Amino acid sequence: HKEGRAISVGLFRNVFKSKTREPVPKQWRRIFFDHINAGIIGPFYGSMPFHYATAHNKIHHRWHNDVGDVHTNMDVDRTVPSSFVLWIPRFVAYWTGVTPLLLFWKRKEYRLFKDLSYGMAYYCTLSFLVWYNTDTFFYWAYWLYPVLEAASFLGGIAYMWHAFSDESDPSNQYVNSVTIL
């Protein structure tokens, strides 16, 4: 959930050593690999830098698909296919960082707002540079398509993930966390 941090740090735990064989502090390793994944690798997979660390962890995991979650699906009738068509724009706004940014501002969580803003500004700047310096095919195939693919694929997963809710207690985490595939 922290954009692959555990995997990247685990695989490259002993890569950075000083001449005295003292390991580089964990904080610097974490920052280095988080930024490599979030800023360089992640965008080619349709991921907004720092999105999971802020929006996913601090909104979705805090509110557990309840009404405070910006991409909740509690109000969606999953027995009607058109509900997915109505819900997917909500997920796209979440995935691109728009609705989490607005929620952080509304809740006065300015540190999270700043972190996500930096990630979005970095992504938009990089998007412009990729568009400006490459041909149209590369931009669409390797930059824009992964965002659309990730939003639709992960949107479909998120649509079904919290498939059940208790009408008498909609915030019951034990019921709305059940997933049956």
Automatic annotation (TrEMBL):
Keywords: Membrane, Transmembrane, Transmembrane helix. InterPro entries: FA_desaturase_dom (IPR005804). The keyword Signal does not apply. One of its GO terms (biological process) is lipid metabolic process. It holds the Pfam family FA_desaturase. Residues 30-179 form the Fatty acid desaturase domain. The chain crosses the membrane at residues 84-104, 116-134, 140-161. The keyword Transferase does not apply. This is Fatty acid desaturase domain-containing protein. It comes from Pseudictyota dubia.
